Amino acid sequence: MSLVDTNWLEKNFDKVKIIDCSWHMPQTERNGFDEYKNNHIKNAIFFDLDNNSKKDTDLPHMLTDAKSWENIVSNMGIKNDDQIVIYDNSDVISSCRCWYNFIYFGHNPELVHVLDGGLKKWIKEDRATTSDIIKIIPSNYTVREKKELVKNINQINKNILENEFNVIDARSLERFKGSVPEPRKGLRSGSIKNSFCLPFSELINQDHTFISKEKIYEKFKSTGYETGKNIVFTCGSGVTASVLALAYFLIDNKYMPTIYDGSWSEYGKN
């Protein structure tokens, strides 16, 4: 049950830790933390996607190291057996990246959920929000890192020759085909050789909820990817790749989300 709806969260409010992982593309000139301070779901803890990523790199949103993740989550007051609901107020459904991070670092996938429709749907339904900041009691979180859930550029290049897994790109078809410039400076246009394209936006309804499982299945089928092989998701910087990973997890609960962390921010340089 990776996705939970607003009714479920309201009924289970006191049984879960709630995380606001709102992150916005730089060109939107929106600040997730500022918005959180003004208005959020009660008891929500803010997760800063930029600050909680790897520091010693010029690539955005790269996974941090295990020790840093233990400190980040401990300082959020989250324990290993906590049930977590993550939401966002972002057009790129950034909550899915936080969902992936928790699974990568070993939190039980059955305990990590994304709020379907996010803050936008919550507010539209006139559910309670606040500007009060919760007081956090630090925990002692421990990591069980699953390194097999991330791919690096060498593995991606090797796969072009050996074709061991599918690579599916969450960017728009125009960016995938290289017919428009990349929003980040210094990157060439185009895509990874032999990869497939499924724009993440095709999986999201107007109210920011996911389309039905039946429709998700049809969308993946339409890409022409090879069944029977593992799937690795990519995008511009690893955020919307996680949207595809969660969507695929909905239709195949045996799948463990696997991301090319550098995504086009790295590959487009080379």
Q: What would you say this structure looks like, in words?
A:
The protein has 270 residues and is α/β, with parallel strands linked by helices. It folds into two domains: 3-124, Rhodanese-like domain (Oxidized Rhodanese, domain 1, 3-Layer(aba) Sandwich), CATH 3.40.250.10; 147-267, Oxidized Rhodanese, domain 1. It contains ten helices and ten strands. The strands form three sheets. Strands 1-5-4-2-3 form a five-stranded parallel β-sheet. Helix 7 (173-177) links the parallel strand 7 and strand 8. It starts with a strand and ends with a helix. 41% of the residues are buried.
Biggest sheet: strand arrangement: 1-5-4-2-3
**Amount of helix:** 25-40%
Give the tally of β-strands. Answer: 10
Number of domains: 2
CATH topology of the largest domain: Oxidized Rhodanese, domain 1
Which residues form runs of ≥5 with pLDDT under 50? none
N-to-C order of helices and strands: EHEHEHEHEHEHEHEHEHEH
Largest sheet: 5 strands, parallel
> Which structural class do you get from the secondary structure elements?
alpha/beta
Q: What is the CATH homologous superfamily assignment of the largest domain?
A: Rhodanese-like domain
Could you give the distance between the termini? 38 Å
Q: Compute the CA-based radius of gyration.
A: 18 Å
Strand content: 5-15%
Average pLDDT reading: 96
Key attributes of the depicted protein:
single chain; alpha/beta; about 270 residues; Oxidized Rhodanese, domain 1; 2 domains; globular; 3-stranded parallel β-sheet; 10 strands; 5-stranded parallel β-sheet
